[in-house]
Predict the 3D structure of the following.
Amino acid sequence: MYLFSNSIGSFILDENGTCVEEMLTTTTHPQANDALTNTLQRKYKNIQTLPKNKLHLALTLMRDKKYLTALRNANRALTNDALRHSVGPDNLMTQTVSAIEEIDKVTNLLTKRLREWYGLTLPELGELVTDHAHLATLIAQHSRNELQTLKKIDQTIGSPFIETDLTPIRELATQINSLYTLRQEYENYLKTIMKTHCPNMLELAGATIGAKLLVMAKGLKNLALLPSSTIQLLGAEKALFRHIATGARSPKYGIIINHPYVQNSLKQNKGKAARLLADKLSLCARLDYFKGEFKAPSYKKELDEKSEKEKTQKLSHE
Amino acid sequence: MYLFSNSIGSFILDENGTCVEEMLTTTTHPQANDALTNTLQRKYKNIQTLPKNKLHLALTLMRDKKYLTALRNANRALTNDALRHSVGPDNLMTQTVSAIEEIDKVTNLLTKRLREWYGLTLPELGELVTDHAHLATLIAQHSRNELQTLKKIDQTIGSPFIETDLTPIRELATQINSLYTLRQEYENYLKTIMKTHCPNMLELAGATIGAKLLVMAKGLKNLALLPSSTIQLLGAEKALFRHIATGARSPKYGIIINHPYVQNSLKQNKGKAARLLADKLSLCARLDYFKGEFKAPSYKKELDEKSEKEKTQKLSHE
């Protein structure tokens, strides 16, 4: 006699595959089934679990209509449950990072329109204010006259618009403004997720670069498993494949080029800086994935000291 | 002796180009200068205006420092003035139509993100609601539970999000909603401009198609001067040039394909319908540009009768 368990219950089968006793489960909770198995094991002392070479007996049994529908439903419920729990912080971060990138595209497009449209009435303002967000705020919050006074535009070559023609432009500016606010909120949300999910990455890489690395690696687990040389080149795939295909120069850094530590390095040291930073980022990802200590501040200090030393050496050479 | 006038005043010159009398203007208003000219003409009876072959005398005179700066300033003021008044309803319509097109792009991009993001927690909703604007409104205004009840989604394979993870999604939906509202406001604004600027075009073509035709023709004046066969093909430039270059079939219609009159025609009659509609649109553009009567309703009736007749013929043939 054999013991066989699956998602709908536990069964005792004889040598011919006939069911001697069955205990059906009522929930999809895996532990409920364990309890049934235990009960049966206590009842049938020393019972053997169905070996692999006899699995066909169980399959034949399960073809019975009595079990088939229940089995299908139970398995579907288990799949749904797995799906439901497969969504984690990685997914939320991916959505947020993508949303931020899209908002950047959108605000750029709409601000270009704003510049052109408002340029019909006060072209001087667009030339004086090059920052997109600032321009949108000014137009949304001030009247045309106020802006002329504020920016000391005595004479304008723009056309004197009537109020009904200014309103649609101002509404566009307001819309752009609230898109910038949303972007800021998403940045904060990203930081909140990272603070619990990957505090070391957040500390060393910052929210923007850290989140992008996680998204490019498709999750914290994958990032933790990547060699640091790959982390160094994440985001430089195009240049890397060009290097492999045509033998062009290999890239020295991916998106970590935007990190202040690499940014502030001397041009000839940037490659080395990127490598050192990627080393530490790789350690951070592993610490975060395996729920290790919060070591990022000491790594940061290490990097800072190295770059300090480099600068002194540079000076003494001169 | 000759009389010479320009933007800074009127002058009496002798045969050698020496200034005998000058009257300088104080404003850039062209009529002020006319008055000065009249005064001098009354004083010097039968005086001749400086003929073209003696214009060099005036040029030499104007090189005098006394006049040069004033002349430059006056001309710049005139140019600015011309620029200021060059902005008309055509420009406002162009900006509005472009803004609407850009808002369409933007809402599409952001709604795709919204679908994917909300799909992590309630994927069934996105499948049930295919309309972008409707989906955004639902997510912005209802909680996840309300939506499940509303759309009868008993079981979901989505992940049960906590409130802090739902907020950013709901904010995105709100943002998309207000972009849709802005689009509606721009449509209304467009109608307001067209009602005074080109009522016939508005009546026959509608705000969207009418405004697009005007933008593609670069203004009402140009549209009024175009032959109706060109109006018929506005927006089909790519197909037209392909026809010219490669001898492919010539296009039968441009953006007027979207007009209900062409849309509702039988497939084999669409080309003819587009031609008839373009004829009438061309008349409308001319009426509007030369401030003629409001004849669009009668054109509309004519077209409606023709399409009615066509349908009856079609039926009698069957």
User: Anything to note?
Assistant: The CA atoms of residues 62 and 68 of chain A lie 6 Å apart. Chain A touches chain B at residues 80, 83-87, 91-92, 95-96, 98-99, 102-103, 105-106, 109-110, 113, 116-117, 120-121, 155, 157-160, 164-165, 168, 171-172, 175, 178-179, 182, 185-186, 189, 192 (CB under 8 Å). DSSP finds 16 helices and four strands in chain A. The mean pLDDT of chain A is 90.
